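Hi R.,

Here's the chain you asked about this morning:
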Amino acid sequence: METKKRMTRKLDLLTAVEQVVELSKGSRLDAEFFKKAAHPLKHLSERLEMTKEQSVMMALFIDNSNDSSISISDFSRHLECSTTRVIRLMSDIEELERRGLVCCCRERSGVTYRVPWEVVEAFKRNEKFTPRDYSGLNCVELFSVIEEIMSMRDDNELSTETAIMRLRQLLDSNKHLMFVQKLKSLRLGVSEEALLLVFSHLFVNNNDDNIGYHDLNFFFDRKVEWNHIKSRLNDNSHILQETKMIEFNNDEGFVNRESFRMTWAAKQALFSELNLVSMNQDRKNVIKHEEIVQKQLYYDKAVASQVSDLGQLLEESHYNDVCSRLKDKGYRSGFTCLFYGAPGTGKTETVLQLARQTGRDIMQVNISEIKSMWVGESEKNIKNVFDQYRMKVEKSSIAPILLFNEADAIIGKRQEGAERAVEKMENSIQNIILQEMENLNGILIATTNLAQNMDKAFERRFLYKIKFNKPTLEARMQIWHTMLPELYEADIKVLAERYDFSGGQIENVARHYAIDTVLHGNASLETLMAHCDGERLEQKERRKIGF
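And here is the predicted structure, written out as tokens:
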């Protein structure tokens, strides 16, 4: 009698579930059960738009929703039937999983299920569960949802097939995003697109640029499929490698076939909508050629001739012609130049003037920013420098100049038998730069004050090496005249003869002279010579130690 009262009670979803669960206990899901439970099953089936068998399974899941590890054997005990009987309903359970009503965890120890809290909440509100609407997302929100899906797959709560289905639905709901448009334009197969999404997730959400096989295999639950993917990756024949989406990492300058990263081109193409710190190019280190002020420089005849030849070579028409001829002959087409000599001799300013003269922007490398206290970060930073430069070369109508200014710290002699982490890092950075110089497509110029400390491997890789000497007497007189045209010719000659200065030192003295003029209205030759004496640190009196 009590059962009949409950059966005639106005049905809501939880009441229907309660009735189905009660009637199914010990029923073995026989024909008599479906006859007795026809009314609540009909209600569930119509409200939830599912079959009667799916409604029975859903009712049992809701009844066990407080358990995060629901097993099929729990159902067989409740129904008092064999596990095989419940297994026959696996296709119905899989449909519930596809609709997001249950989550499945597949582990070696067995298969278990849980009911998401939002599904239980929908039943409590007497509402049909409707998956969240993921349309109209921005790119940050999209990757947040991708992270959720990847996390569920990593926890084995989604099969590979279901995870791929959800990812594809997510992409189809957000076709307005540039990321989705670029991804779809690649026309990849299902498995290849899924793998690229895994790479994208690891880079964007985890900032991971050192991706191993162990980071990827969580997604693919079929061993045969994963082994095929792994084989293609190892052979460098996967479609993602052929389309320059991913590439091998370098380990101390050598290719590491166990580690991958997304290429800079792929990152630029796919993630332009995201403000990723790891992709932000340091614009303050980009010098536009049109912003460089013209400046007169003075060299001795040998240096003047070399600089002039290099300037002609870097003129775009000559540059392209030479590059083509070198490639035809099988030579490297990259131009690597070393400017070395004493401080203040015009090395950096020569780079600036060559850039202005040939219409080339400069991408200046800040070496102190490259070196990081974190192990592995410095190597990643230097790789990013060359990745960014490659992109600039590809995007620019005229190849820019990559400038390593004051490069003493990175082109010095490598440490033999390096054991300390810092020494290993230094060697690793140098190996990476050496390999990048071999493959360079563009123009690299390095300046250094200490060429005698340069590693022989770097010396071989610089095609042009120009030594900047201190200016001759004649050149010094020209510099003094240019800097301080108001001086008498006789005074200029005295200064040039007495002080064997570089152009940079003369400029410092001239600045002091200009300051004196502002403060005092004029400045004498004696004041000027006092500044010159102050510029020569090596002649200052040393403080005696002791008594």
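One quick note: The two ends are 115 Å apart (CA to CA).

Cheers,
M.
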